[in-house]
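Table S2 (text version). Query chain:
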Amino acid sequence: MRKLTPELLDHLPHDDPGALRSRADLRRINFFMGNERWIASVIPENTHYITEIGAGDGHLLARLAGKFPQAEITAYDLAPRPAHLPLSVKWIQGDLFAQASPTHGGTLIANLFLHHFTDPKLRVLGEWMRGFDTLLINEPLRARLPVLLGKLAAPFIHPITRHDMRVSIEAGFQRRELPAALGLDHLVQESVSWRGSLRIFAQRTNQSANLCSIS
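Corresponding structure-token output:
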């Protein structure tokens, strides 16, 4: 069963020294887990729009702006626009639930973001995502191995990261939980990584089944 506990990083000022250190830890954790490599490798080459919700420090979108120069890239986050972000990336600051969903479709990215929300909120986000052609979702896998890996990493990371990593895994997902919570009407492919990721590649389909295919 998922357990939602507040994460420390979510309640710190953006420029707090501990928050800065924890975000640096998260970049290293993302690298170890291969999350950004996976996302960059599965984005359709011909996509014209890339949108990330919960964009954080903008590190992923800065990378994608170089790989997909033809795409219009938009980020949503509570935090202010990162200084290093290319000017071509549009940054929308504020509560995502108060923002209208884009109408242009394209590719939506949610990387280590959806585990912050309860099932009712996830259902609302599922409706928000409905107009996108492709969904790329990467979330913590709720399992014993990620817990063990987190314990092994504990001596090398900031106390904020140490706390939030445990909380994130407890709030993570197992197979089939997230597509059902979002109420997806996309064609869904689901996979897990031994490094602790649960990944969803979903494409919009005209079929009416909610979960057309899960592998």
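Notes on Table S2: The chain has one domain: 8-204. The mean pLDDT is 90.
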